[in-house]
Amino acid sequence: MSVVALVPAAGRGVRLGLGTPKALVPVKGESLLLRAVRGLLDSGCVQHVVVASPPDQVEVVAAELATLPNAHVVPGGAERTDSVRLALSAVAEVAPDARVVLVHDAARCFTPATMIRDVVSAVEAGAPAVIPVLPVTDTIKKVDESGTVVETVDRAPLRAVQTPQGFNIDVLRQAYAAAGDIATDDAGLVERVGGKVRTVDGHPDALKITTAFDLAVAEAVLATEES
Ligand code: C5P
């Protein structure tokens, strides 16, 4: 039975400010998207990837991924939720036997293969939903509207969530059927329909490239690895 990864990459990437969809921004000559999709397929446990692209850039994105035979591109929607929903509905055609589905950020293109395998294994072992997490290292404070601290939060039980998030496909379909228009966290949708979400260890390399600073760091790391 195959494992399919969905990559919602239909955003405009405004925060990076480069005037191009974030997923297509190159790091050392290769886009975040190409690196992320190849990383999923090379993990050895993902057979197909469905990418939701900006609707007017389907051909550009398909050309970007042309070297990867099991990468499929569908037009995304107005919000991330719509893009995931559209990619999820393509799974029936791409891999009708899929029982496990991952949802992954193109911006986390340096996610280690071991972490992808840990997520898939946990779903295959019976967990309805699985997320990779890291302990929170910053001190966290709650503030009021004026910015004055009202509480220092105990960070011991807090976790920062990465991707890929993994799901039993029926559970994700049910969660999306019940979801409203805007959801930023797929596992959160599963929680809302009463599903248990398990965690596995995340990894610092799976950082989300969001700002020009993150991009510069990624280029510097790759340059060090190559030298
Ligand atoms: O813009 P933001 O960082 O919240 O987007 C999160 C992810 O969702 C990005 O990978 C983006 O490409 C994707 N997205 C999408 N369809 C949209 C909006 C965002 O696939 N309509």
What does it look like?
The protein has one domain: Spore Coat Polysaccharide Biosynthesis Protein SpsA, Chain A (Alpha-Beta Complex). It contains seven helices and twelve strands. The chain has helices spanning 32-42, 58-64, 80-94, 113-124, 169-178, 186-192, 212-226, and strands at residues 3-8, 26-27, 30-31, 48-53, 71-75, 100-103, 129-135, 140-143, 149-153, 159-161, 165-168, 197-201. The strands form three sheets. Strands 1, 4, 5, 6, 7, 10, 11 and 12 form an eight-stranded mixed beta sheet that branches. It has a two-stranded antiparallel ribbon with strand order 2-3. A two-stranded antiparallel ribbon has the order 8-9. Strand 8 (140-143) and strand 9 form a beta hairpin. Helix 5 (169-178) packs across helix 6 (186-192). It is globular and about 50 Å long. The model has no long low-confidence stretch (mean pLDDT 93). The structure holds cytidine-5'-monophosphate (C5P). The site of cytidine-5'-monophosphate has 15 residues, from helix 3.
